[in-house]
Amino acid sequence: xxxxxxxxxxxxxxxxxxxxxxxxxxxxxxxxxxxxxxxxxxxxxxxxxxxxxxxxxxxxxxxxxxxxxxxxxxxxxxxxxxxxxxxxxxxxxxxxxxxxxxxxxxxxxxxxxxxxxxxxxxxxxxxxxxxxxxxxxxxxxxxxxxxxxxxxxxxxxxxxxxxxxxxxxxxxxxxxxxxxxxxxxxxxxxxxxxxxxxxxxxxxxxxxxxxxxxxxxxxxxxxxxxxxxxxxxxxxxxxxxxxxxxxxxxxxxxxxxxxxxxxxxxxxxxxxxxxxxxxxxxxxxxxxxxxxxxxxxxxxxxxxxxxxxxxxxxxxxxxxxxxxxxxxxxxxxxxxxxxxxxxxxxxxxxxxxxxxxxxxxxxxxxxxxxxxxxxxxxxxxxxxxxxxxxxxxxxxxxxxxxxxxxxxxxxxxxxxxxxxxxxxxxxxxxxxxxxxxxxxxxxxxxxxxxxxxxxxxxxxxxxxxxxxxxxxxxxxx
Length: 477
Ligand code: ADP
Ligand code: MG
Ligand code: ZN
Prior knowledge:
Blueprint: E1 4-15, H1 54-66, E2 70-71, E3 74-75, E4 78-81, E5 91-94, E6 101-102, E7 105-109, E8 115-127, E9 131-135, E10 140-144, E11 151-157, H2 164-180, E12 193-203, E13 213-218, H3 221-241, E14 248-253, E15 258-264, E16 274-275, E17 282-283, H4 286-295, H5 300-309, H6 314-322, H7 326-336, H8 340-358, H9 369-380, H10 386-399, H11 403-410, H12 418-431, H13 433-440, H14 446-457, H15 464-476
Helix pairs in contact: 1-4, 2-3, 5-6, 6-8, 7-8, 7-9, 12-14, 12-15, 13-14, 14-15
The chain binds adenosine-5'-diphosphate, magnesium ion and zinc ion.
């Protein structure tokens, strides 16, 4: 039998970063009491008139620009009709033809290091449904409409993926771009970036697409990869046995690492799409497009290249890019202390771990970029040695304040006065004649003992480089 090749296409739903819903002014806030952010529009009352949120349109266009799509000057909303208890209007407001963006794509690097271009089919705007809450105790299903009407974009790719690795790579890259653009907050655990995987197999080297299954609602990159691996084996097994793949919707169960059938396409809906008569066309004027282009921030790939250019290590670059608003913090700190490596090191070793522990963005920490830069400056001009600076950090992070003043108050200003250090070194050598003899007999590692003693005597304030030099000189004399 010929080798079977996986063919995969994705549909990604991303929640747009807006304060209010797509067609009304209810808040998109999550976590509040059920049905507290609803009105006649988002609860689907007959006769209620929707109005399009301009910010959602801008965010969708921005995503399209960053992904190389053609952004249509004019697109329309359509009603996608189906019945579900959490969809009170009886239709979802979505876009069929034309959508706001068409074409475009994203280049990824596959497992073998080769570059692959994944084409996008389209990006369209739509609203989210509410939520059914199953109350086991009361034996009831309740409906919460707080999420109903929340703006989404759906990004649809062409069936260009050939492995789970490519899919995960693509999802990570797409997520990073959309978060960087602030198109979405991208919180995976809140379902703000979730994907449906369409997958089929075909004999390698042939063109015709096989029968596909669609695995719904994967909100983790890893689960998407695992679901694909499972499907490749399951569908491969069917081909081996000569059994047909049934076109159906499946769910991934992470606990059992398997996908299970949810519904077959026989029950598939006929959505009877038609233009939503209550809404005017979505218009993206050339002026708006020009403004969005001008406002476009550096994309993750560009930031990465710049940080490497500035002398950061690949690890530091990855960490800064990975944390929300860390690059913004870094850039601001650099305006005050133009030492990229020093700023990045302080962030990666001190600031970002502390922020992660407290679950805050560095921009919200009590130590602003100016403060971190000031601390770095004290190190650069030898006022503080590394150890003293690192010892001051926790207090600066907890309470903020001026690093120079805190250093003075704590008496940890670095001693770079050769006279003072020589005096301390002489005392220490005199008090430890055995170790001094060992050093003179050639046991050079005893030097670190003396350095340690001197740092201790100076309460950590001695300039370590100078301390080393002075000790070597005295011990050798
Ligand atoms: P639908 O909206 O009915 O799910 P679409 O034609 O919009 O179908 O396709 C949805 C996604 O499925 C796209 O990413 C597309 O590339 C992918 N796709 C379509 N047919 C196949 C197939 N036979 N195998 C794998 N992926 C497919
Ligand atoms: Mg689909
Ligand atoms: Zn509302």
